[in-house]
Amino acid sequence: MSNDTPRLDPKSMPLQGDVTWKEDKHFIGTAPSGKTVDIDANKVAGASPMELVLLGLGGCASYDVVGILQKSRQDIQDVRCELSAVRADTVPAVYTDIHLHFVVTGNDVKEKQVEKAVALSADKYCSASKMLADGGVHVTHSFEVIAS
Predict the structure, then answer these.
(1) d(CA 143, CA 82)
(2) Which InterPro entries does the record match to this protein (predicted)?
(3) How far is CA 104 from CA 64, 75, 79, 148, in A?
(4) Other beta carbons within 10 Å of 102
(5) What does the pLDDT read at residue 22?
(6) Which domains does the chain have, with CATH numbers?
(7) pLDDT value for 4
(8) Dihedrals φ, ψ of 137, to 5°?
(9) How, if at all, do strands 75-87 and 36-40 pair?
(10) 14 burial class (0-12, 13-18, 19+ CB within 10 angstroms)?
């Protein structure tokens, strides 16, 4: 139990989810949206909690990049965020370094627009990236554009 005093009463917080133990190291998480996800530290029935953190970062940043490219009228056909990460050797085995590499495929997609989209996500919009970076994780980004 933490000695930290919550800033708000947890019952009055606007976003609420839960995690329910199923068996062994398998849990079912229910997001505030009501969607469920399998969480499994053994990686048998689902992704591990730390894998979900990594995927959450990739999803958050990808959402930003796609939205920014669409607003700038880039004819994107596919966007993939390849994630690489390093974890500490000691407990807690937190992420120390995470790299996001965006592969953007489309017709006449401008590299400058992709560079701008990735930078805006990293520096301004991606809540997950900002939270991890502020917590001491070294987060880096790169991209490539592939003509379709």
Answers:
(1) 10
(2) KH_dom-like_a/b, OsmC/Ohr_fam, OsmC/Ohrsf
(3) 13, 10, 5, 10
(4) 24
(5) 97
(6) 1-47 (no CATH), 49-147 (3.30.300.20)
(7) 65
(8) -80, 135
(9) unpaired
(10) exposed
Look up tokens 């917080």; give the residue: 13
What is the reported pLDDT for 24?
Answer: 96
Residue 2: CB atoms within 10 Å: 5
Expressed in angstroms, the distance from the first to the final Cα of the chain is 53
Cα dihedral 15, 36, 29, 94 in deg (nearest 10): -90
pLDDT score of 6? 62
* Ranges of the chain with pLDDT below 50: none
pLDDT at site 9: 75
Quote the CA–CA distance of 12 and 15 in Å, as a whole number. Answer: 9
